[in-house]
Write a structure and sequence with these properties.
The chain is of the alpha/beta class. The protein has two domains: 79 residues, Ribonuclease Inhibitor (Leucine-rich repeat, LRR (right-handed beta-alpha superhelix), Alpha-Beta Horseshoe), CATH 3.80.10.10; 53 residues, no CATH class. It is 26% helix and 16% strand. The chain has a five-stranded mixed sheet, sandwiched between helices. Strand 4, helix 1 and strand 5 form a beta-alpha-beta unit. It is globular. It starts with a strand and ends with a helix.
């Protein structure tokens, strides 16, 4: 872990090998503090206080694949997904929804018979199904990060 001192007296976060960051439910409102975490693939800010799309845009240079901003004030915007995708063009997933599958009959999502996740939406799911799906997606992300860390350690 290392941190560099920013000119304005703020601490700039510098963790080049960090690939997943989960700060859900932490009252976070500003995202620009994370713009130097260019090794990140996934960032989870669910249930925080992000209310400004300019804060989302501050993550543009990170090159994220996945961002979770559900249950933030910005997510209430009627064009939330469209705006986030335009601001962060490297994304392949916003919240629990893969980008590009809207309107293709995948909207309900759910769990298959072997406890796997299928589909890309949560619209018709119960709260228990959503929780299970989120846990599985989060575990898959953690597992991917472990594999990447192991591969990097072998080099």
């Amino acid at each position: 872990m290392c941190a560099a001192q920013a000119p304005a007296g703020l601490t700039t976060l510098v963790f080049p090998n960090l690939s997943v960051l989960d700060l859900s439910k932490n009252k976070v409102s500003k995202l620009d503090h994370f713009k130097n975490l260019t090794g990140l693939d996934d960032i989870w800010f669910s249930e925080n206080n992000v209310s400004d799309f300019a804060q989302v845009e501050s993550l543009k240079e990170v090159g994220l694949e996945t961002i979770y901003l559900e249950h933030n004030p910005v997510a209430k915007d009627s064009e939330y997904r469209k705006k986030v995708k335009e601001l962060l063009p490297t994304l392949t997933q916003i919240d629990a929804n893969a980008i590009g599958y809207e309107g293709r009959g995948w909207g309900g999502g759910g769990l298959n018979g072997v406890n796997g996740v299928q589909g890309f939406g949560q619209g018709s799911m119960t709260d228990a199904q959503r929780l299970l799906m989120m846990q599985k997606l989060q575990q898959a992300t953690v597992d991917r990060a472990k594999v990447q860390a192991a591969a990097a350690a072998e080099k």
